[in-house]
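Bench notes, afternoon.
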Amino acid sequence: MRRRGLQKLFHLDRFGRRLEESLDEEVEFHLQTRIDEFVASGVSEEEARERALGQFGDPDLVVQRCRRIDGRGARVKAVREALADVHQDVRFAFRGLAKTKGFSVVAIFSLACGIGAFVAFFTIIHATSLRPIPGVQGVDRVVELLVMGRSGGSTYWDYPDFHDLRTTATPLEDVAGWKDRTGTLATSEGGEQVALAYVSANYFRVLGVVPALGRAFLDSEDVSPGQHPVAIVSHETWQDQLGGDPDIVGRTVTLNRTPYTVVGVAPRDFPGHMAMEEGRDFWLPLMQDPWMAGEDSWADERDVMWLQVLGRLAEGATTDEANAALQTVFSRLEEQHPETNEGRRARAYAFGPIPAAFRTETMLGIGLGIGLMGLVLLILCGNVAGMVLARSVSREQEIAVRMALGSGRGRLVRLLMVEVLLIALMGGGLGLLFATWGLDLASSYLPAVPVGLQGSGAPVVPFALGVTLLATLAIGLLPSVRFSRPELVSSLKDNTGGGGRRVGRVHRVSASAQAGLALVLLVTSSLFIRALGVMERKDLGFQPASLYTVHVDLTQEGMPTLDLAEPFLQRTREAIEALPGVSAVSIADGIPLDLVGNFTAVARADQPDPTVGRIMVEFTLADEGFFEAIGTPLLQGRGFEPTDDASSERVVVITESLAARLWPGEDVLGRRVWSGMTGEGPQEFTIIGIAPDVASSRPTEDWPNIFASYRQAFSPRILLAVRGEGDPSTISRAIRTTLLDIEPDLAFPAVVSSASLVERGTVSQRSSARVAGGLGILALLLSAIGVYGVVAFAVSNRTREIGLRMAMGATRGAVLRQVLRDGVRLALPGLLIGTLLAVGVAMSFRAQFFGLSPIDPVSFACAAGVLFGVVLLASMAPARKASGIDPMKALKME
C-alpha cells in the first residue's frame, strides 16, 4: 500500500511524523512534571525519577499503547466509512437498476437461466456420481472386481471362478458376489413386483454395512441351493410395503411363491451400493437364486458369466497387490480350464458411486458436460458484459464528473462492481428457484435425479454462490476497468455519453460464436424432431394397433423350465383366447420395438465351418400364434405349429432381407442354417417360412430377424401378445383379471398396448429431441442477447456519426437498414462456421435419425431461418433507436 494510503488509513495528515514526535514529547513532558513534583517535595533527582517511573510506567510502553489505541480507533473508523460507502453504492446501484428496468430484467433473467442450469446439472452429477455411497464403511478398502475376456471388454464372473478366488489366499480379506433380479412379493391384493438382490452371505460384511434391526446373513445360510430361505429387507420397503412392523425380524414374507424369514432390516441410508440405480427391496442369499439349483445349475458352469463381484482389501493391502494376486489366480485357472478360461483376466478397481465398468466413459461425459455448461455460462456472462458496456457508455459523463470531483479509480470500480454484483446475486437467487423447479420436473422422468435440491446432499448454496461470484467478476471486471479512466475533457464536453469507441473484437467474436452454437443446436433439434416424424410414418412390418402385451417372468413364479411352465402357458392361452374381442394370442419372448433384443450369429449350414459367412441377427422365440397376433402375414411357407417341439426337427422363420443375404435370388424354403439360439453351441435349423422385414427391438437399428419355436429354445421370461378389438381399458382389465385368476400370486400384471411400446421404444430419441430443443431455445436466447448487446453498444458509440448522416440527408429507413445489416454481418461468420459444425454433429448422431439424412436440407433451412429471424429481432431495438436520433442534438455535441 502506498504511503499516502497508510496515512489516510490511520488518519495521519501531512504532519504525521511531527504528530508521532509530539506524542513522545507529551509523554516525556508528563513524566518530567511528575519528577519535578517529587523533587520539590525534597526528594533527590534519582529517587524522584524512580518514583515517577513506578507510578507512570515505562514511557516506551505508554507510547506503544497510545499508538495501538489510536490505530484501533482509526481502523474502526475506516471500516465504518467503508461500510457507509458500500451502503451508499448499493442504494445508488438499486436506483440505477430501477431506472433501466429492461436492462435489469434481461440481465437478471439471463443469469438466472445460466446459473440455474449449471446448479441443476451439478446437483444431478453430485447425487449420481460424486456423492459417496451412503452406509458403506471403510470405503477406501472396498474394490470392484471385473473380469476381462479375450476381447478386453469387462464381463461378469462365472460362479466357479468366484468360488476359486474366495478359497485362495490373496490380499483380499473377503470377496462377495451378487446378482440383481426382479421378484414378486405376495400381498393381500395379490402380488407386487419388487427388486431383489441375491448376494453371498458376506455381502454386508464386505461393504461394512450393519443392519439397523436384526442381523446379516450367516455363512451357513449360503452353502446349499434353496436350503435357507431368509431375507433382509430395505428400510424403505419395511416402512412402506410391510407397514413398519417393529416385530419384522422373524416375520415371514412370500417372495416368488416361497416363504422367506426376515432376519434383518438394512440401514435407512443404505438402499444398495449402486448409486446410479434404484434401490433394492430385499436381499436374499445367493444360493436361493433359482439358477443355482437343478441339473443345469450355474454353480458348476464356467461359461455362464452372470455374477458381479466386490472385494475388501486386507488391512494395509493395496490395489496393486490385489491385481498381482488376481493375475496369479487367473493364470492358474487358464492352465486348469483352457477351454473356458483362455485369455480371461481379472482386475481390481477402487469402489465408488460410478461402476468401474464404465467409469472412464462416465467421467469423460461428466467433464464434457461441465465444460459445456461452463462455456454456456461464460458466453452468457459475455453477453451481459456487453450489455453493461453498452449501458456504461451513457454514464461516461457522470464518471468523468466524479473523477473531476476527486473520486479515485478504486471507488469508481467498486461503484460499478456493486451494481454488477447485485445483478448477479438476484440472478443467482432466481437461478436456484429455476434449478429447484427443473429438478422436480426431471425427477418424474429420471429416477436417479434427486427430488429437489435438499435431497441431493450436494453443497448447492455454496456452489451457486461461487458461480455467482465468478459470474460477477466475468461480467463486471472489463466494464469497470474500462470506464473508470475516461478521457476527462472529451467526456465533460460530451452530452451523449459516446466516447467514440469501437465495438471490441472480443464482443464481436463472442456474439458471432453464440450464433454459430445456436445454429448447431437448432439443426440437431430439428433433425431429431423430423426423425420422429419419419419413424411414425415408417413401415414397422407389424400392426401395433389393437396389440396388447404382458411381460411374465416365470423364474419368479417357480416355473423356470418348459416342463413346469407348459401347463400354465396352455391354461393362459386358452383363457385369454376365450375373452370377448380377442382374435389371436401368442406366447413369445419379445415383439418388434420392445427394447429387449436377443442377438445371435447365423450362417449357411451347407458350409462345413459355421463361423464362415456369419451374419449377426436378432432372434425371437415364439409359438404358433405369433405372426397372427402381431399382424405380420408370412410371404412364403408356414409359421410354427404345436408339434414343433424338442422332439422334432429344429425350425425357423427368417425375414426377407436375411434370406436375400444368405441365398441371393434363390428359394430358401427347406434350406438349413447354423445358429446358437439354444445356448448349446451352433445347431442346425430348417427354414420353414419367410416373413417381411420387421422393426428391430432397437428403433435406431435395422437388424435382420429370425424366429424360432419357444418349445425348442425355451426362455422363462416370456411375453403374451394379444390382439383384441374393442375398448382398450376393457380388454386390458379382462386380460389382467384372467391372469390373476389362473395364478393369484402373479405380480400385478401390467397390460401395455403395443402403441405405447412403440412410443417407449423411441423415448430416448424423444428425450434427446427435448433436450436438444431446450438447449436450442437457450442458445437462441443467448444469441439474441449477445447480438443485441453488441449492436446496442455500437449504436451508442455511433450517435454523432448517425446524426451527421441524417443531417446530410440520410433517411430513417436507410439508417434502420444499415444497423440491421451490421447485426446480420456480425452473426454471419458464426453462422457459416456453425453450419460446418452442425454437419459434423449431425453425422455423429446419424444412427438416431431412423434413416433421415444427417444433411437434411429442410432441417438446416428451418434452423437457419429461425436464427436469422432472431438476429433481426435482436438488432431491431437498437436500429429503431438509431433511426430516431435527432440530427440537431447530435451535431451540438461537436
